[in-house]
């Protein structure tokens, strides 16, 4: 496994597995971690032995959004050069995921909040554990969704549903899945399910992008749910 910091990369059987590894802060994104993510996606795009990518996380959360210290600092003076650059790096990290040339899957357990929600939405496919909590967090606080959240989400579920978005609990996900979600995948562990699915994508030439393909940000295929254990 390459990378000893907060982002790790493992390539196995043509599948690049990118792991968010900052469980002490629930994988909240800092500018430095965002730089690591972008560099990792660049490396994946430069490897001929990779046909697909899975992004997952260590700990109880997939990604708790932007790091609180980073957000607090940016809130004091959003126009300050260092604040603007730091927030830009966080936005660029999930935007860059949407630009990865091979098919991408987000394997989601625990909470995905704010920028973490944007991260999973930027992938082509999401496999979501039944104990996951998907929280945009912006609207509840009367804030305009950041990082293009509304645009990315509306491409998946439509503008009206995106405007009415609210936290998605385990019960709601299982009993009444939102548009684009399916609760049918139950038995496999989420990491095993995501690897199996992405391997099929990696092995199929129909999923491989053409050299001149347009960027695929939020080129959504769908969302599946399964137990986390």
Properties at a glance:
single chain, 229 residues, alpha/beta, 2-enoyl-CoA Hydratase, Chain A, domain 1, three-stranded parallel β-sheet
Strand arrangement across the biggest beta sheet: 1-2-3-5-7-10-9
The CATH homologous superfamily is named: 2-enoyl-CoA Hydratase, Chain A, domain 1
How far apart are the termini? 23 Å
Highest CATH level, the class: Alpha Beta
Shape type: globular
Question: Which bin fits the share of residues in helices?
Answer: 25-40%
Counted beta strands:
10
Secondary-structure map:
Elements: E1 7-12, E2 15-20, H1 31-45, E3 52-57, E4 61-63, H2 68-76, H3 81-99, E5 104-108, E6 111-113, H4 115-122, E7 125-129, E8 133-135, H5 149-157, H6 159-163, H7 170-175, E9 181-182, H8 190-203, E10 222-226
Parallel strand pairs: 2-3, 3-5, 4-6, 5-7, 6-8, 7-10, 9-10
Antiparallel strand pairs: 1-2
Structure description:
37% of the residues lie in helices and 19% in strands. It is an alpha/beta fold and 229 residues long. α2 packs across α3. It contains eight helices and ten strands. Strands 1-2-3-5-7-10-9 form a seven-stranded mixed beta sheet, sandwiched between helices. A three-stranded parallel beta sheet has the order 4-6-8. The protein has one domain (7-226): Alpha-Beta Complex (2-enoyl-CoA Hydratase, Chain A, domain 1), CATH 3.90.226. The protein is globular, with a radius of gyration of 17 Å.
């Amino acid at each position: 496994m390459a990378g000893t910091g907060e982002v790790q990369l493992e390539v196995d059987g043509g599948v690049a597995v990118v792991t968010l590894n900052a469980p002490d802060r629930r994988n909240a994104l800092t500018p430095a971690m965002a730089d690591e993510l972008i560099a990792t996606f660049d490396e994946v795009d430069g490897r001929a032995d990779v046909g697909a990518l899975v992004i997952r996380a260590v700990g109880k959360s997939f990604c708790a959004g932007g790091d609180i210290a980073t957000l607090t600092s940016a809130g004091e003076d959003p126009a300050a050069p260092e604040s603007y650059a730091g927030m830009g790096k966080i936005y660029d990290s999930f935007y860059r995921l949407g630009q990865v040339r091979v098919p991408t899957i987000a394997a989601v357990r625990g909470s995905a909040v704010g920028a973490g929600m944007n991260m999973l939405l930027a992938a082509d496919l999401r496999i979501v554990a039944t104990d996951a909590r998907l929280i945009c967090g912006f609207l509840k606080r009367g804030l305009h969704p950041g990082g293009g959240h509304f645009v990315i989400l509306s491409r998946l579920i439509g503008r009206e549903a995106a405007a009415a978005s609210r936290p998605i609990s385990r019960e709601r996900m299982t009993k009444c899945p939102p548009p684009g979600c399916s609760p049918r995948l139950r038995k496999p562990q989420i990491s095993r399910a995501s690897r199996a699915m992405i391997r099929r994508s990696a092995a199929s030439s129909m999923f491989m992008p053409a050299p001149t393909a347009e960027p695929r940000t939020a080129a959504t295929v769908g969302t599946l749910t399964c137990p986390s254990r």
